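Weekly modeling sync, notes
Attendees: S.R. (lead), two postdocs, one rotation student

Agenda item 3: backlog of single-chain predictions. S.R. asked that every request posted to the team notebook include the full sequence so nobody has to chase files. The rotation student volunteered to paste the first one in as an example of the format we agreed on. Action items at the bottom.

Example entry:
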Amino acid sequence: MIYSPYAVYKKYAKKCDALFLAFIFSVVFLPIAALIAVLIKITSKGPVIFKQQRMGKNDKIFWLYKFRTMRIEMEGPLWTTENDNRLTPIGKILRFSHLDEIPQLINVLKGNIAFVGPRAERIELVEQYKKLPYYEIRHIIKPGFTGWAQISYRPSASLEEAFEKLKYDIHYIKNRSLFLDLLIIFKTVRLLFAKVK
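Predicted structure, as returned to the notebook:
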């Protein structure tokens, strides 16, 4: 049987690459993560790390970790808007810079998510998104720490925006390759450091 270069990469190297990148990023961002943890703790009530059940590959449910960006005493809609009053002052900065995503490196190390793939969505949102045509395609691969949709389109705040974002996910799934993964990782790093400045 003849394997394509990406098939070999996907079978043997992609998981190792994800673990290696997650370890490197964990070391690089450790001082920033420690500072973020302190700021969250002293500026609002509640845990530093927020965990939430998300939908993964083959509809498998897992706990996703993020830095908490919202006030724990406030409830609201499933979608988060730009000026959402549930966000803490620190949370607004973390959301804008995407630094709230750092704890997801734990999920990469645990094997819940890959480094590149579609965003892992909340179970409640998945139930709504299933109304969209071909949405189930997103779940044939692992979700990712970053992905083509995440760097190409803003966070969804409606079913219509979720459908637009779905198009980017399907494009990635149909065209995924070592080159595309590297391009997404490069753009993610560039975007992240551009916002942190």
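Discussion: group reviewed the output briefly. Residues 13-196 form one domain.
Action items: rotation student to repeat for the remaining queue; S.R. to check formatting next week.
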